[in-house]
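User: two proteins, same treatment. go.

Assistant:
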Amino acid sequence: MIHFKQIPTIILCMAGAWIWTADAQSLGSITHIPENMIESKWEHDSEGNRMLNYYNNDYCDYYLFRINDKSYTLKPGKNTVFTIRKDSNFDSQFKTAGSYYRFKGAFPKDFDIRTPYLLPVHNGEYVRWKTDRRERMKTMNFGLAPGDTVYACRLGTACEVNDSRSLLIYHQDHSFAAYMMMDECFILPGETVYPGMPVGIAGLSGVSVSFFFLDENKFGNSVPSTGSIYTHFIPYFSTSDGTLQPEEGLTYVAAAPDEIVMAEMTKREKKRYLKQFKDKPAYTEAEKPAPVETASELEGIEWLQDPVSEEEKNEIARFIGKEMDYFSSIGMKPYLDITIYNFEDPDAAKSFILEKFDRKPDGRTFGSIYFPKWKTGVVIGYDSRKPELNVDAINYLVNSNLYRNLSANVTISQWLSRGLSIFFENCGIDKDGALVHNLSARQRERLREYLNGKTPDIATFTDMSNAGFMKFQTESKGIAYVMAHVTISAIIENGHNNVITALLNRTREQKPSEIIEKTYPGGIAALEKDISDLIK
């Protein structure tokens, strides 16, 4: 314990270190308070009054606890906790010795244990949970497969945390949800998170979520010397069997009725949610948009650091517009939500990527990189003398965003994403404005040589994990991308677009091979024959 004998200029960082071990992706690490998150300053206002201001640089409330004295809730931003009027002889209690502690959160406001939450999986999916033994406090480990999408359980705001793969959400009633053990987190601090919104990718052990609040009953004249100052609880979740507290080890089907999803939203948030995050039905003929001819007609792209010519933008818009028309025609409702930076100087691009995304790109002097977490793409080495290369690089970024938005239930399989992307990259637009696909002789030859007369094993290929697909791509010197392209070509060119729709709408419980077997006429064997015929 430290005692202040003068006016305090900083607050002690006592919380977190003694409660849990602050390892990465642990509850202790998430509730640990980052350095300089709370700052205190004596300042004067325009009238000469002296004020003690605390600056909360986080996006959730903090509780400033002073032993044997008044404590304070610090809202995000500036908090004036004490004022000495000009010419006043009043002696501030802050000049006396005191011990201070700070904690994330505030005491609950209208807390109701029966407030309904969503399960952290897509609507209609099956899931079960078990207690995460790695955490001292009650934490639910949900049995998602590695690579599955994790969904938000309740509306709230993302707080600052020490680990970029973890997520801490602060709810309206001052409770928290901590999402841990993820491979990737899509959400940045300060973002509003909506129920049912994708927030990350599950790790090897699924995703662990802990629900808790700062408990006033655990404070007296001092903080507890052992245990936690938070109370952890099991929420009531919306399931196909109704809203209930799920039992450990039992399987439940996630349900996301609108009255629960939008219960805590403002009118503006409801409108935004319905537009951006709710599953989008297919276009009707009356709703189908007019063909895109110019960049101004293609919504959802923001151009920054922008040397791209209008001619190039219009070419990209016409191509992507045709691609989006294809997806709308097979029962999807595609949309874009991407920011694109274009750098002519490769070194400037790399410095930007390192500063903004904390990523160190390779030595390339030309190319494009998509950052899904930020919905942002960067073109390295844009060259006004090479419009075709520029267009290809930007099309890759836009497609990456489009396919991530299209995948309705689970993170899109790498083979499906790459296959669709390469398929449309090898399409042109004819004089009638229609897409025309070309599977090059070289790609056919490469796959023939790899198969060496054997029938392609499409079941094994399409059921590969994303990591397995990328490993296969490396070990086979690029044949995985070719196989993906040819597989998509066989499906689309034979007119079986319903297979693409079904693959994009698959649930976590379904394997891609099972969907192909059920939806492709003649099943897997017929698709394998059509692929063999296509590359002859």
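Protein 2:
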Amino acid sequence: MSTTRKRPRPAGATGRSQTRSSAPTTPATPLALDGRSAGVLVHVSSLPGPHGNGDLGTGARQLIEFLAAAGQRWWQMLPVNPAGAGNSPYSGVSAFAGNPLLISLEDLVEERLLDPADIRFHLSSRRADYTRAAPLRVEALRAAFKRRRRLPGLARELERFRSEAAYWLRDYSLYMALRATQLGRPWPQWPRELAQREPRALGRARRELAEEIEYFEFQQLLFHRQWARLRQHARERGVGLIGDAPIFIAHESADVWSNPRLFQLDARGEPTHVAGVPPDYFCKTGQRWGNPLYRWGHSRSTRHRWWVERFRTLLWHFDVVRLDHFIGFSRFWRIPAEHPTAEHGTWEPAPGKHLFQMVRARLGRTPFIAEDLGEVTPAVRALRDAFELPGMRVLQFAFGEDTQASAFLPHAYVPNCVAYTGTHDNETFVGWFGASGGRSGPRSAKQANKERRAAIAYLAGPGARQLASEPHWEAVRAIYASVANTAIIPLQDLLGLDNAARMNSPGSDEGNWEWRLGGALANALARKLRKLTATYGRLPPPADSR
């Protein structure tokens, strides 16, 4: 849905070159997952725009306007850290930094850090084209860095940002500068003194790479500033942001390089054991993610400081954070690094209770969603409930043969949960229901038909004709009608798209994370969604009562 509203200028701004503050602005009354509400799941990279992938600019602001018009309280997205292997946001090179490919180049033109000629490239909006977009976007960010003195006061702002982000920014920017000099080689293959972080070698590198280090700091400042404005835009319209925290970190990351004692590594810095999950619905041989596992004893000895600082950063960005693979805070699947699949791992305990006690003691309010999907044991449920965290319910899981399937039927939900038609790892609902179009899931045709019949029996009722033509809306209706406090619908399901619009297929290395919205969302869709939201008591309270 388009909008003619202008982005508000910060108080005291007198011209477009005015430097905007990067200081965190925390809402006086943060939005919380209490009472009935609804939202939409879509990643920033999926938004429309001319530069190869969605970003924090016009498309993001227009989405917020759509959500407000549609009576939605929440925008849920995937991790916004720099993407790693396969462009996955769940395998980033930092748990703290923002993805520079999400920086709006058009907004940098508005601020005079770029000239219009710098962003004349136009890439297809059908799919995210990271291969072509990344070098062009980086070239533009390099140009903005050269022109940074156009903005009075930006140098002081960078100094303030360095202080605010001191826990992670210093190591991140050095890691990225070194990575460039090492031509992207894995950090255990760097010269020994750099791989092992010998102080004298790091000091010399900081001097020799000072300008390159400042460039990566500058990137993060731009992301930080644009994020602050976007969150303010959302807050003024009553829309809260839900983020996503992958439990594990990529081996090729600033975090593992700068905190090697926190991870299960050998003397060379290579993982001894890696993360994944045993055989399940998505993959018969399990999923071998390959991330290094935590050395939880060391984390505990530091009172989990790395985690506390990570959550502190996330809760500046978001009102609520989804804890991906929450099971891993109770127990984790430990796979020997030399094994090519996840079939031969073992379950090991994790100190989730102590971790969350430390986080709550340091940060107070902990607005987390527990992604409690998979092999959920009584211990996992006890950990979730001890901290009163809402779990997840996914409608697509309700009609299969899994022993937990009945818990995903809407009539079995509890108020303290977040209900979805599907997640970024699922087929779209139309694709799942019809078992056609684009990439399919792991089900056999026989199983797909069996689940479809079960869904028809459950969802149809007097709406059988509607279910045949628009199964996604009957799925949304079932989720909205449930007692779940929060209902989140993937944007693809609101649009009734088939599996060609699927975001991710676990176990597949191609075609993931590329789906994009082709254009603005229609006003008619906002009106239809708002009506349904009102029908089931999920509209946000009036602005004057918040």
